[in-house]
Amino acid sequence: MDRMYSNQLRPKQQAKVKGWVDHVRDLGNIRFLTIRDREGLIQVTAKKTDVPSEVFKMISDLGKEDCVEIEGNVLKSKIAKKGFEIIPSSVKVLAGAEKPLPLDFSGKIESGKDTRFDYRYLDMRNPEVKNIFITRHKVMGLSHEYFRKEGFIEVHTPVIQAAGAEGGSTLFKFNFYGKEAFLRQSPQLYKQMMMASGLDKVYEIGQAFRAEKFHTRRHISEFMSLDFEIAWVDSEEDVMKVLEKLVVYVLKGLKKDGYDLKIPELPLKRFRYDDVLKILGKAGIKIEWGEDLEDRQEKKFAEIMEKKGYELYFITKYPSKIKPFYIMLDGEVSRGIDLDYRGMELASGGQREHRVDVLVKVMKEKGLDPKDFKFYVDAFRFGCPPMGGIGFGVDRFVQQILGLKDVREAILFPRTPDQLIP
Questions:
Q1: N or C of the chain: less Cβ packing under 10 Å?
Q2: Which residues pair with 228 in a beta bridge?
Q3: Beta strands 153-154 and 201-209: pairing type?
Q4: Hey, what long-range contacts does 372-381 have (CB within 8 A, 24 or more apart)?
């Protein structure tokens, strides 16, 4: 007999279920056992007169979180929450659980985040925590679905790189057979190289790394980055159209699955950097032109936008000096964009610089040596089309969808300056 999940059970059938012991109630001549599997809870009811004596005894000996296999008849029940129960004919202990458990994942006793992350496999037995990663799975699946429908090609670029897309001190350096190498901050440079190859619409979802010694609710050392790049663009507007359609596609898919989400109308609201400074200035927050927006400033702007009915919006026309070398410049402003959701930056990108002479000039102005990026610069020497794209934080997106206070909650085994194990 094949194993069945709790959501597959129906009255008047023989069933085999496997899961963890959630709790046991002993009322003398009747014992109630609740089993938990991935899909929910299963009630097992054993009356002393209705089940084999060895089964009746074994149920009373079970402990919380023991792994068990139960076979029996599924019958209708007026008492069981799901309207049915299993009358067991066989009980097997597949693995016992040591006592006491190092973590009370039920939520009855509050546990610190560090303890929860140390015992993540126990933490995820809490249905609310498990749902975070089911949601993440759905976000990833819907994203792949969108890109395939839109004719994008999935690519996989190197995690080990000779140069960082952003440069600076946030690179993880290591020795690669006697040469200095880095864990990627982004697949940025390789995505752009693909535009010179003829694959004019590509995307990638994979890990990226930042050696930032931050301890905030939104920073992490290893994160899941969703990136896309498109060729033959006329402006950053082409990039925003792809990105907003992606985000709305994912939100609509989740809403169909029962998530309580607001679906914005397209196109999303666009705010120029100058507009943001004016709006914040009226709220008493002064920002010098040319400064990047800080976390607290983004949150304040989000509060103002929420009152106007905007959860998702773009910020455009940032000053050139605060955007990376590969973003196309337009005088003192850039063709860069950010996408914010509920006060958190989810994505950053824009139109890229594809003219090799301008690219080299800007790299030098920003203190970079084009020779260190020769493999990248060369891709622009043989006819490279205008292009644009973004990098999008999947972890942050899940965090904001579910209203999580800390981005680490959206990651199975988060990596921070203080956390390397497990």
A1: N
A2: 203, 390
A3: parallel
A4: 372/163, 373/163, 373/189, 375/162, 375/163, 376/163, 376/189, 376/192, 376/193, 379/192, 379/193, 379/196, 380/196, 380/354, 380/355, 380/356, 381/356
Sheet (strand 269-272) strand order: 153-154, 201-209, 222-231, 387-393, 344-351, 336-341, 312-316, 269-272
Note the pLDDT tens digit of each residue in 230-253. 999 999 999 999 999 999 999 999
CA distance 222 to 164: 15
Question: Rounded to two decimals, what is the model's pTM?
Answer: 0.93
Token pair belonging to 117: 């992350």
Which H/E stretch holds residue 74?
A: strand 67-76
Q: Which residues of 292-321 are buried (b: 16+ CB within 10 A; e: fewer)?
A: ebeeebbebbbeebeeeebbbbbbbbbbbe
Q: How many CB atoms are closer than 10 A to CB 62?
A: 19
Can you tell me which residue has the tokens 């006697």?
A: 178
| Sequence letter at residue 380 | F
**74-77 contacts at long range (C-beta below 8 A, 24 or more positions apart):** 74/9, 74/10, 74/11, 74/12, 74/13, 74/14, 74/15, 75/11, 75/12, 76/11, 77/43, 77/45
Task: Give the separation between CA 41 and CA 44, rounded to whole angstroms.
Answer: 10
DSSP 291: P
Cα distance between residue 290 and residue 304, in whole Å: 22
How far apart CA 28 and CA 210 sit, in angstroms, is 59
Q: Are strands 153-154 and 222-231 parallel, antiparallel or unpaired?
A: unpaired
Given this model, what pLDDT does residue 408 score?
95
Beta bridge partners of 392: 226, 347
Can you give the pLDDT at residue 110? 76
Of 314, 309, 223, 218, nearest in space to 275 by CA: 314
> DSSP 3-state assignment of 274?
helix
Residues written for the chain: 422
Instruction: Let me know: does 190 contact 157? Beta carbons within 8 Å.
Output: yes
Going along the chain from its start, the domains and CATH numbers come out as: 6-95 (2.40.50.140), 122-410 (3.30.930.10)
What residues of the chain score a pLDDT lower than 70?
Answer: 165-169, 215
Q: What is the mean pLDDT of the chain?
A: 94
Q: Is 162 helix (H, G, I), strand (E, B) or coil?
A: coil
pLDDT tens, position by position, 3-60: 999 999 999 999 999 999 999 999 989 999 999 999 999 999 999 999 999 999 999 8
